[in-house]
Structures are given as C-alpha cells and as structure tokens.
Predict the 3D structure of the following.
Amino acid sequence: MNETHQKLIQIGQKILGASRNELYLSMRFLDVALSMLPYEMNLSSLYVGTDGIKILFNPRYLIQRYLSDRVLVNRLYLHMLLHCIFRHPFHQGERDESYWHLACDIAVESIIDALPYRSVKLVVSDRRAEWYERLRANLKVLSAEGIYEQLQQANLSIQEFGKLQLEFWVDDHVFWEKQKDDDQENDQNQDQNQENQQDQQDQEDQEDQEERRQQLEEQWRDVSEKMQTNLETFSQEAGQEAGDLLQYLRIENRERYDYRRFLEKFVTCKEDLQVDDDSYDYIFYTYGLQLYGNMPLIEALEYKEVQKIEELVIAIDTSESCEGDTVRRFLEETYAILQQQESFFHTFHIHIIQCDTKIQQDHVITSAEELAAYMESFDLRGNGGTDFRPVFSYVSDLIEKKTFRNLKGLLYFTDGWGAFPKKRPPYDTAFLFFDEGTYNEREVPPWAMKVILGKEDLYIKQNKE
C-alpha cells in the first residue's frame, strides 16, 4: 500500500513538472511564479487546487486530465498560478463566496483563452465567447472585481448560474479558505474557565493564521510586481502578446491606501481647542488632590497641537463626460470622511468649485453643518468641455487676495480629458478618477498625484517628480 502511495505521488509530480516546463518554455516571464508552488498529494479533494503555498493534487483526477489532453493540465496549472498572482484567494472580503469564486475563474480563463501560445490553446466555446462579449460591453478589462459586480447585477437563475460554473470551473477552491478547527466546538459540559481558555487559544490561532495569510499575500504581490516589470521591460514583445494579462497586472498592482491616510497629505499642524492630557505630570495632579482635597497642583492645557484639515479646495469637473451620479458618489466618499469632527479644526475653510471650461460655482464651507447642508442640496452646474486651468488661475487669485492663509492642497475630480496647467502650483494637487470596473491609464502632470476611487478601495498612484 505504501509503495502504491509513493508511486502515485511520483506520477503526479512528474505530470505537474512536465506541465511547468512546457509553460516556462512558452512564457519565460512566468519563471519566478512557476518556482513558487511545490506539489503535494492530497486526497481530501477529488480534484486539484492550491492554497497559495503549494499545489494539492488528487492523482486520479490529474492522470485522467493528462491522458485526455496535456493542454488541459497546462491550463489547469496556469489557472491556479494566475489565481495566486492576482491574489484571488486573499481578496474575497465580504463578497458572496460562490459569485466571487466564479468571477475569479472567468477572469483567469478569459486571460488564458486570449493567450496565443500552443501550450494552452483550446477552441473557445460559444457560451464562453458570448459571456466575454457581454462582460466587455461594460468592462475594458475583465478583472475579478468587475466581473463580480456584473454577475451580481445579472440576476441569474440557479440553473443559469450552475451552467456558468460548469463552463468556467477548472480547479478546486476549497483550499482558499482555512476551515475552522473542530476543536472550536466545545462540549457544553466543560466549565466556564475551560471554555474561556479555549476561546483565547482560538483567537491567538486565528491571529497567527491571519498574519501568515498576509505574509503569503505579500509574497505573491512581490512575484506579481516582478512579472509586470519583466513584461514592461525585458519581455516587451511577450507583454504585447499577453495583452489582457499585462493590463490586469497593472490593475492588481496599483498601490492601495486608506482614503483617510491620503487626506492626511492635506493637513495642517497647529493648536486646537481641546484638553491635552499628555502635557502634564499625573504625579503633581494626584498629589495636589491628596494634599488639598480638590485642588490639583497642575492642570491640563486647554490647547493641544494636532494635525487636521484647515484649508482645502475640492474642484469638480462638470463637463458632459462626467455623469452627475458619479460626481455625487465621489462627494459622498469624501463627505463620509470629512464630516467626522476629528478631520477638521473648529474653524476651517473649504471651497467646493464646479468648473467645465470656466468657473460655474464656488461654494465656501466653514462648518460641518454647512457641509451637510451642501450635500443635501447639491446640484451639478455646467455641461461644457473640460479645461483644468481656470480652477488653478482662480485659486491663485484667491491666494493673492489672502483668502487662503495656508492652503495645503486641491482635489480635482475629473474624467481626465482636458488641458492641464504647465506650471506646478504652490500646493499639493491630486486628480481623482472614479473606477467603474474599467481601467484607463490616463496621464496627469508629473507634479500631481493620481487617485483612482473604487467601490471598495481607493487606489492611489503618486507620480515621481
């Protein structure tokens, strides 16, 4: 029995090794990624899958695929590899699991079906071609996130959803999410102390597991970024042939930040009216209370040096290409953060400017109440072309008139198609785009920041000066 077991392991490893070699000869840019996944036989699944650490295979299924057509094994190997390169196992979040897994499979298969290499080439079925065309009508690049949204909006019946799963299913995703240990289900007869100890141990195990997952995701991010660099430099010809693969890599490898952290670029450091608990010695405070009853020897300062937003310009492109709903969504994203009291000083100065080819409106806001009222009555003004220069000229005039004392930055929401100023202004500038599941590498001046706002994350790309 042990001899049979070893023989099955060897056969499976030889099949996967041969597939890896064939993929490497066809696509040299996969060299680093192909070295990341060792092989291990695993009979808990009837198929083949990966957990991002290794490829786990059932030898019976693997042998059947190989005997049927070795191209199927090549595609299976590449399919799992691309899941890891794009970090699909780590990005599910709060999404519906079945829809997310299907979206990831469609995204990966669309890339493989578009590759020109014989090692992975198969005839694309009519059902696949129909769905690719349907998705590309709304998505420039078939990313898993964009496909997920489209599937959610499609209102598929159970039968249609099942057929779609069968069409694009390749590998077993059961290894993506670690299952909770059975030990977590404690016997009801255990005493409270034992249950608390078990809960504490479970929490520590979960934290360790999450840390390992983050480390693994960072490893694959590094592989993905190296692969992108390779395709953009040394393997440019392969990058042109890969097409969607390179575009997808650019999307996934965009640097991600929290929008609140991004807004910290526009804060001012000054004193604000609030108790500074860190500025005095508690020993003198408590000693005074003990000695005199209710008279501390030292009290906290009423002012504290903090970093908050004091002056800011938010410019909105109101040209025909910017839809009103999209602009409102941008304002809602920003408003959700700015309305919180800890974002502002007690007195602040914000200009919300609407502009197409000329200034349409400048609304000045000095309090959280005024900001809330503006959001409730917001209406879009202007419907012409796009020219960014009037806003910068207008802000320069305000600075000369001393309307601004310490302007830190300007946020310009736009579609990106317009004339930019030639000179850098004396404050930080960010051009913001809303990403509707598409990808467009619109250029901004080298002195400006480029921000792409997504539905779940806000991606920030800062150009080097």
Summary: Confidence is low (pLDDT under 50) at residues 179-190, 269-276, 302-307.
